[in-house]
Amino acid sequence: MLNKKFYRSIILLHYFTLITSIITAQSREPLKPIFTNNPPVIDGKLEDEIWKTAPTVSEFKTFTPDFGNDLSEKTIVYMAYDKENLYFAYKCFDSEPDKIRATVTSRDNIRAEDWICINLDSFNDQQSLYALYVNPFGIQEDSRFTGNTEDAGIDLVWYSAGRIDPDGYSIEIQLPLKSLRYSNTNPVEMSVFFERKISRRAEQGSFPAMDPAQGNAFLTQMQPMFYYDIEHYALLEVLPAITYGEKFSDTGGKLTTEKVTRDLSLTLKYGITSDLILDGTYNPDFSQVEADAGQIDINLRYALFFQEKRPFFLEGRENFGIAATTINEVDPIRYIVHTRNILNPIGGIKLAGKIGESNTIAAIYTIDEISDPAPGTEKNTHFPIIRYKKSLSEDSYVGIIAAAEEQKENYNRVGGIDGQIRLTKASQFEFNGILSQSKLLNSSDVNFGNTLGLKYSYSARDLDMDYSIKNVSEDFRADMGYITRTGITSIAGFAKPKFYPEVESIQRIDAEFFTAQIRDNIYNKWETNNSIGATMFFLGSLNLRLKYTYSNEIYLNEKFRTGGFIASFGGLVSNVLNFSLGYRKLNSIFYSNLPFEGKSNMFQAIVIIQPSGKISTRIDFIFSDFTRKSDNSLIYEYPILRFRLTYQMNKHLFFRGIAEYNKYRKQLITDLLASFTYIPGTVLHFGYGSLYEKTEWVNNAYMPSDSFKEMRRGFFFKASYLWRL
Questions:
Q1: Is residue 222 part of a domain?
Q2: Is the peptide bond preceding residue 65 cis, with omega within 30 degrees of 0?
Q3: In whole angstroms, what separates CA 346 from the centre of its chain?
Q4: CA 453 to chain centre
Q5: Mean pLDDT in runs of 10 for the chain (725 residues)?
Q6: Local structure of 242: helix, strand or coil
């Protein structure tokens, strides 16, 4: 009886929330941009005739560091369109224009600066949005937001320009409809959320104003916007690319050619409708413009994580996120699908978009070529991935996922359901249930596994909190994902009350409380992870975080202490200097067949110096050590120093040099790059890199040395051109 009453209460609460949200949405008058046959020139000057008659909004209210205050500087947004493009303009007043934070930098590198952002839900279905960021010099950044996660992987084709004026700065934006997915209707209904950030005050404001009772639930607080008689395209894009590269390695004391690469690739994009897109690629060039930054790669319980950087996989990646994953710091299910595991694809096809008003589908099929297959294995591995989502009221949805890594004699397959249900304005419930089926090479056994995740979260002005349950069976595998541990059950809770002192120099203080009780089902033992901390935001853009952790961990049937102290400090000091410092002093485990307990220190520093609007220097330093507890002996010290210097000649062309020294490995890496990007897809890159080691060739053998010897060298050239028909 109690359960029936509880479920009835939940259902009534959900319907009440739905009715309330409908009334709220209806009370927001839709925006109606002006149609024009004389589009503006995108030059950052608001002198075009259209801006004199275009509708505007200007009632910006803050949501960071607090909700509901007038933004400290006046902001006006203008809206227009024609049959093929959407146009926006910002006039951002500033009483101290000499303190505006902006540089001529590369794309997707402006978050620490002043910027504006147009958050565009192109279907007005509260399921996802495009975020288009622009700094005062017109430099772009873009992303996709869905399922409470922002993914910066996409690179849309759009145009922007900006200029700093005596009274602030101005920005103009042209967004081609061919770059968007939108409904095949007339009028087309979208929704929008305009943002502005003033970095020196760590202040963000928006129109429409965000409701403190809804916290940062962006998708449910957008303003409807209507466009009449716009084009609906059968999009066709052709992207050929050529790549030439050569690698050298030291053999017998001399550098000799190891590999020469000459590749021609082709990628096609076809719009079946304006909201359903088919992509195909053959022999794709997925070369990374910048190598992965060095990480501490010893004494690891699980493999290092590397971000996906390859364009074919980045677009539409947000569709493959699964609810109730990465729900807290102890959750071992990070990603069910992580395409970085597809190492050397020789071809692929992808379908993504909407079918009808509430159905989203995404599918990828790729063939991965194994460069050095093990005996008895096939040369190719097949990766089919299918995702379907059904949108419900507000930002709620239910979905299914199926993915596999297939060879003839061995495979790993996963499939299951997930969902996100909005319960109230401020609270959500997330769930997933995933099954796996695996067969190893030279084995007749088929293993089955499963994982279950449940999460309740609440977010509002004064409090964030969540509670979660996660179970991962011992035999669960997702080889196409990123899983750090199996065979556990965890129950966790988190609370973050937020305080707003009436002190001018302190914007906000966040307290943090976390607890997780974890059962290692393999060894039938319990471990715990508990922490208490606080973060203070002060003096405009600085923050200080302190945290104490009491925890332990089960490893090979032994329980080890792992808690300790964590501190971080950083922020924007001036237009020239930005920094971040972090320190951890923890009890730790030495992971081996004979593990032992010890203590570890970790220090990390990032310093960014920008002496001019076109020159940027970034210095990264990371240090870790481990001392055995039983005899206080030092097991290792591991420092990495990375230096990056960038000269951005203009918004399209930059030159960059990187030097990284790994003292533990006694290796020095250098990387030089010249890069020209007209629009995403139309690019020229030339790169050169070397690896040096402290060794020398003596008497037909490599011997340790105090001097560096170049052991590897490589260069590459890449050119591609985007044809949009």
A1: yes
A2: yes
A3: 26
A4: 22
A5: 42 41 54 96 95 96 95 97 97 95 88 95 94 96 88 89 96 95 92 96 95 91 95 88 93 91 91 89 69 81 85 82 94 94 91 91 93 77 96 95 93 97 96 96 91 97 97 97 96 98 93 98 97 95 96 97 97 90 97 96 95 91 97 96 94 94 95 93 94 93 93 94 91
A6: strand
End-to-end CA distance of the chain, in Å?
Answer: 63
DSSP annotation of 211 reads P
363 SS3 class: strand
1 and 137 housed in the same domain: no
Enclosing H/E stretch for 121: strand 115-121
HSE-CB of 35 using CA atoms within 13 angstroms:
9
Side chain identity at 350, as an amino acid letter?
A: K
Asked if 675 contacts 683 with a C-beta cutoff of 8 angstroms, the reply is: yes
Helix (H) or strand (E) holding 516: strand 506-520
Q: What's the token pair of residue 436?
A: 């796996």
Tell me if 310 is assigned to some domain: no
Taking residue 664's Cβ as centre, other Cβ atoms within 10 Å add up to 16
Q: What pLDDT score was predicted for residue 325?
A: 96
Provide the number of structural domains found in the chain. Answer: 2
CA distance 108 to 170: 19
The answer on 221 and 189 residing in a single domain is: yes
Check residue 725 and give its pLDDT. 84
42 & 5 share domain = no
Is the separation of the CB atoms in 405 and 414 below 8 Å?
Answer: no
The DSSP line for 558-621 is EEEE--EEEEEEEEE-SSSEEEEEEEEEEEEEE-SSS-EEEEEEEEEEEEEE-SSSSEEEEEEE
Asked if residue 69 and residue 99 are part of one domain, the reply reads yes
Clarify whether residues 110 and 13 are in a common domain. no
149 and 192 belong to one structural domain: yes
* Domain-located, residue 71: yes
Q: In terms of DSSP bridges, do strands 203-207 and 61-64 run parallel, antiparallel, or are they unpaired? A: antiparallel
Q: Rounded CA gap, 207 and 135, in Å?
A: 18
Question: E strands, 166-273, where?
Answer: 168-176, 188-198, 203-207, 223-227, 236-251, 254-273
Structure tokens at 414: 């996963």
The range of the structural domain enclosing residue 138 comes to 31-227
Residue 26 has a pLDDT of 40
Contacts with 694 (C-beta within 8 Å, 6 or more apart), sequence order: 666, 704, 705, 706, 707, 708, 709
Rounded Cα distance, 555 and 553, in Å? 6
Tokens of 553: 């961990």
DSSP 383-442: EEEEEEEEE-STT-EEEEEEEEEE-SS-EEEEEEEEEEEE-SSSEEEEEEEEEEEEE-TT
**Exposure string for 391-426, b = 16+ CB within 10 A, e = fewer:** bbbbbbbbbebebbbebeebbbbbbbbbbbbbbbbb
- Residues 134 and 37 occupy one common structural domain: yes
Smallest CA-to-CA distance from 89 within 34, 170, 157, 158 is with 170
556: left (phi over 0), alpha (psi -120 to 50) or beta: left
Token pair of 299, please?
A: 């004494």
